[in-house]
Design goal:
The protein is α+β, with helices and mostly antiparallel strands. Helices cover 19% and strands 24% of the residues. It is built from six helices and ten strands.
């Protein structure tokens, strides 16, 4: 069997750590005291971000941001969004104390809802996918909830550019699909395929348990098949299986 390309592509957009930031020229208020406003302005101008761009990202009016930078406002409910765009910790931005940036832990430079041009966002399909006997969704919290992949990489892997929301991600758990899938692999799910579309890998639900399995049509019915031979194939009752999507295991990410 041909080896699958499950390596993490370099085209994934990751957030930027503090070590990659430009140095910041210190700005001081008239009385020489550093404030929330001076810290915001210093970071913003050092990164070449316009006031209008930062205000739009934070969901506030440019005049509101201007008042904050000039010290006419002492704080803002959008401070966490401002900090995210600037790549700094909210506590540092508000108090000037503690670590400014990530120090090894990435700080998001985009909001949770904004995807930059040229990238495609894949969000979490709720619940862990069992690759053993199965597992109840809510008992297995996800490690990765969102990835953003370069459009050209998506086209290379899928052959097309999917509409927003069509492809979702899920973390596979369990040993039954080894070596095709390992415990912890991130699997792309095509949610537009909620029906049997020939022998292939699917995300299915059986008795309230979400699983990634192969579905195979045989002479006496539809079988649920594991790659690992320690888990024998079985034929469930037709009404017991719900197909949630097709598992695009050739396009996933290896082990998180």
């Amino acid at each position: 069997m041909e080896a699958q390309d499950l390596s993490i592509p370099t085209t994934l957009r990751y957030s930027v750590g503090a070590s990659q930031r430009h140095s910041v020229t210190e700005f001081r208020s008239n009385d020489g005291m550093e404030t929330i406003g001076t810290r915001i302005r210093a970071e913003r101008e050092a990164q070449g971000i316009s006031r209008g761009e930062l205000a739009k990202f934070a969901g506030i009016a440019p005049t509101t941001l201007s008042n904050l930078e000039l010290g006419l406002s002492k704080s803002s409910t959008a401070l966490h969004k401002i900090a995210a765009r600037l790549g700094v910790h909210t506590d540092w931005l508000e108090t000037g104390r503690g670590p400014k940036g990530s120090d090894g832990v990435p700080v998001a430079s985009f909001s949770e809802t904004e995807t930059p041009p040229g990238y495609v966002r894949f969000d979490l399909f709720e619940g862990g996918a069992g690759m053993g006997a199965g597992m109840v969704n809510q008992d297995y919290p996800e490690v990765v909830k969102t990835i953003e992949v370069a459009e050209w990489e998506v086209r290379r892997k899928l052959g097309y550019l999917p509409k927003p929301g069509r492809i979702q991600i899920i973390t596979g758990r369990g040993p039954s699909m080894k070596p095709k899938l390992e415990d912890g692999d991130i699997v792309w799910i095509d949610t537009s395929c909620d029906y049997f579309d020939g022998d292939d890998y699917y995300l299915i639900n059986i008795g309230g348990e979400t699983q990634i399995k192969m579905l195979q049509k045989r002479g006496d019915g539809l079988y649920v098949v594991s790659v690992n031979t320690d888990f024998p194939a079985y034929r469930p009752d037709p009404g017991d299986v719900s197909i949630l999507g097709k598992a695009l295991i050739h396009a996933g990410l290896r082990k998180f």
